[in-house]
Amino acid sequence: MKILIVFDGGNAPGYSAVATSLTEEGDKRGYEVWAAFEGFRSLTGDQRDHTRLVRLLMSRRQAWKLASEQQYPIHAMYRAIDHPGSEFRSERYPEFIQPEKQKAAAQFMMENGFTHLVGVGGNGTMAGIRALAAQAPEIKAGFINISVDNDIQGDIAVGYLTGAEEGAKIARGLFDDAYTHKRIYILEMMGRSSGKHALMSGASARAHLIVLPGFKFTGPVLADIAHRLAQRDHALVVVAEGYERALRAEFLPERVDAAMYFRRQLMEHGLGDTPEKRIVSEPFSRYLRGVRPLYIELSIAYLKAYSLYEAFADGETEVMPYYLGEHDMGIRKFADLSTNNQVEPHFLDLIDRMLIPSLREYVTGPFMEGRGG
Q1: Domain assignments of the chain as residue spans, ordered by start
Q2: Rounded Cα–Cα distance for residues 170 and 177 (Å)
């Protein structure tokens, strides 16, 4: 049995935890475990490095011994369980949507004798693995969900809890600084489509206002927000990175992040930046991608790896292990998976701790109606 792990998509805390868990459990069960060095690129031949495949082992001594006998790269995962980032992935590879790229990848896997395939990443990686599985149905396929966005229905992605925790720490630090120095902080946080990360981190830090990607504020709402902030001696505003992306693109080549853009909007609608009360925008979004995962997420990574190998042992294919809690875990078929970029409506009450009527009317009215209620 020879298993290939493909890591792709946006970075998130826990990639190394999943790689280590899949390697350890695979070793126990007699698999040869391999990783694509640059994700899907390595399978199609579009990689930027000459290395395409890396053999993964747990034991350092076994890796050293094998390295002296073989001509391919070997990596020992023994101490990698809590490492940040990932050593085996590439940036996004949109060309993989092309059928000829998928066919080339499937051909490469079959030529190299792989019996199993596991994708590790978020929603985009899941789509790539599903397409690849269709091209090579004789290879058993699986997927492990890891992302800060948590955008697959019916699962808690590895990395999501760490992202929310670390993001809340940064946000809370600015909250306390705002309180001490009497400032208004506007902090950009990750959240391109749904804004879940910005929402959860901001709510946990008790931000005064959280701005989600889909918000399209009218002039009167912006004026009311600016007026309410002007009345406060301090505040923390969290803005998801996806807020008004299309409008911000008009400022290119200058990069105007979401926090900076929202600050400009508020200034245009009456919020003043004075020596007595500074209005400070902070770009932060991607810092947390390089943090070490929470230890609870290491256990979740291992549970998912174990569940996936159990499904393979039972002859299943095109499956994803899910984890929603200690007594709520199992396996979902690819056919049952879907993208979920919606936020829980009950959490929307936490976006505004200043109780601005026009903002709440907008969120419960046009915003929710535009998202299907």
Answers
A1: 2-159+293-336, 163-288+343-370
A2: 11
pLDDT for 4-24, tens place per residue? 999 987 788 999 999 999 999
Beta-strand relationship, 116-121 and 2-7? parallel
Q: Which CATH superfamily is domain 163-288+343-370 in?
A: Phosphofructokinase domain (3.40.50.460)
pLDDT digits (tens, 9 = 90+) for 124-179: 899 999 999 999 999 999 999 999 888 899 999 999 999 999 999 999 999 999 99
CB 320 within 8 A of CB 142: yes
| Residue matched to tokens 């009456």 | 270
Q: Which helix (H) or strand (E) holds 199?
A: helix 196-204
pLDDT at 205 over 60: yes
Record: fold of 2-159+293-336: Rossmann fold (3.40.50)
Strands 184-189 and 140-145: unpaired
Same fold, 2-159+293-336 and 163-288+343-370: yes
Residues 148 and 288: beta-carbon distance below 8 Å: yes
Structure tokens at 154: 């019916």
